[in-house]
From TrEMBL:
Transmembrane segment boundaries: 244-265
UniProt-listed SMART domains: TPR
Listed Pfam families: TPR_16, TPR_19
The TPR repeat ranges on this chain: 157-190
Origin superkingdom: Bacteria
Keyword Transferase: no
Name of the protein: Tetratricopeptide repeat protein
Gene3D superfamilies: Tetratricopeptide repeat domain (1.25.40.10)
Keywords per UniProt: Membrane, Repeat, TPR repeat, Transmembrane, Transmembrane helix
Length: 308
């Protein structure tokens, strides 16, 4: 972009270094690019690598000279196992900013490690070989090659996804879930990985997990006849007096206590009186034959006494 006043190039700035003119359009573009860069940086910190790639790519659409966004995008590609894509971004970054650019150090570090370059090249070859085996419907050899790929490059997300897809095709759902969960640890919000994992959970019949890693043990049930409370309907609601409720509760407790006393103590008193009454009846019954015998003797002797 060039200055509209003096036609001097504006390289990643919105204030012309020649005439001092402030280009409002360039300012808005640079601010938008920086905002998306900050979003990508925040997502990368929580291992949302796919979201970070999206935000950083959007930042570069606004300003292709944003070397900070391009360098970070290369680092994320490198973390995802895409070494070729990472080198491409760093080379472009050095092209736009040759001096004081950390991308040159990244490139130099990889060039000084030939074993790393050789291993990356071998990973790509084996991944392509697995793709060719899949096109030939030879899933066994493809799985073997993909296992070698993930052992050589533990953060290569595409290899995890393809390996999980092959396990799903062979109905080895436990192995597929294990592989896909490794991919989730690298990139927690990769849409392809999450879609495969959801399909595995559906086919294998296990509950899905939420963002915090916990299983969803409860199912939300929609009531076909929900209770709707209309606001402003003119109905007034008042809380009960808590003191009055306390008095009522105490009164109810007293009544219940009296009932318990009546049911437990009164029957025992009645039983005691009944036993005393029975004892008296027994004593009177024991004395009653003697009284009858005396009365009989008196009746026999009464005529004799009258005659005498």
């Amino acid at each position: 972009m060039n200055c509209i006043k003096c036609n001097m190039p504006l390289e990643n700035v919105y204030v012309c270094p020649h005439c001092g003119h402030v280009d409002k359009v360039a300012k808005k573009i640079i601010y938008s690019s920086n905002w998306h860069y900050n979003q990508g940086l925040a997502k990368a910190k929580v291992r949302d690598l796919s979201g970070a790639v999206t935000s950083l790519s959007q930042s570069l659409k606004y300003n292709k000279r944003n070397t900070d966004a391009r360098n970070l995008l290369g680092l994320i590609y490198y973390q995802m196992g895409e070494i070729v894509a990472a080198l491409s971004e760093w080379v472009i970054s050095v092209h736009f900013q040759e001096r004081n650019n950390i991308a040159a150090d990244y490139i130099q570090a990889i060039q000084n490690n030939p074993a790393k370059l050789k291993a990356a090249n071998k990973v790509i070859q084996k991944y392509n070989l697995a793709l060719s085996y899949m096109q030939e419907n030879n899933a066994d050899l493809a799985i073997i090659e993909l296992k070698r790929v993930v052992n050589m490059s533990p953060t290569y997300i595409r290899a995890y996804q393809l390996l999980g897809l092959l396990y799903m095709q062979r109905k080895q759902y436990a192995a597929a879930r294990k592989v896909l969960m490794r991919a989730v640890k690298v990139d927690r919000n990769n849409m392809t990985t999450l879609r495969y994992l959801k399909e595995v959970n559906r086919l294998h019949g296990k509950p899905e997990k939420n963002q915090h890693g916990r299983k969803e043990e409860f199912m939300q049930i929609n009531d076909p006849n929900p209770i709707v409370i209309e606001e402003g309907s003119g109905q007034n609601y008042a809380d009960y007096n808590t003191g009055f409720l306390s008095f009522i509760n105490i009164l109810i407790g007293i009544v219940i206590g009296a009932a318990v006393i009546w049911l437990l103590i009164v029957p025992s008193i009645t039983k005691t009186k009944a036993s005393e009454y029975n004892q008296a009846v027994v004593e009177y019954s024991a004395r009653f034959p003697s009284a009858i015998r005396i009365l009989t003797i008196c009746r026999i002797r009464l005529p004799i006494l009258r005659a005498s």
